[in-house]
Amino acid sequence: MQKHLLALLCLSLPALAEMPKYDTSRQRDLEAWKPGITEYSRRHYGEAEWKLTPKCVILHYTAGTTFPWNLVRSSEFAGEAPGLASHYVVEGPKVYQILPPTVRSRAAFGINHRAVNIEMVGADAADMMNNRRQTMDASAQLVLALLREFQLKPSDVYSHQQVALMDKNVVPWVLDLVNPAPYHKIDPGVEPMAYILKQVRAGWQAPR
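Given the sequence above, the corresponding structure tokens read:
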């Protein structure tokens, strides 16, 4: 599956910039990650499981301007193991894989049991639009590869802001058994989300 995804990332897609590089040098130690995310999944989703069958893709910005090493090195967050980790971090044209897309991450409360999480390095929505177009272009290409790999559609791509509403009418798979209340998130912003989705829709073709 990983070879298949990498092959998709090498395809030439219409209306998109040059395909991103794909770097696995900053991956989490999977054997250390799996027990913690299994227990986290049991508590929050009622599933003692580390494996992921993606149903959607969630886009974030990191709220910073440099690589977020906490997604690689943290061992807990808010007093709970495991640490934070997305599947991918995109910085300029470069895509770092932190976790394989078939392993559960901890990056979006309420959806980690169903989502592939992509973090884009950027301070806020204005920074993304003014300074990070290359990052958003690479993210759009990554999203397209993931949609094809897991037979998803552009309508399965959401913002962290949408997830935070904890409303199944907005994101059908949201769930948390510990605290199902809505929470505050605004990433990656309305304009960056629209910019990326425009490219995704232009490049996506329905499976035949």
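Helices lie at 2-9, 30-45, 70-73, 125-131, 133-149, 160-164, 190-203. Try to locate this feature in the token string yourself.
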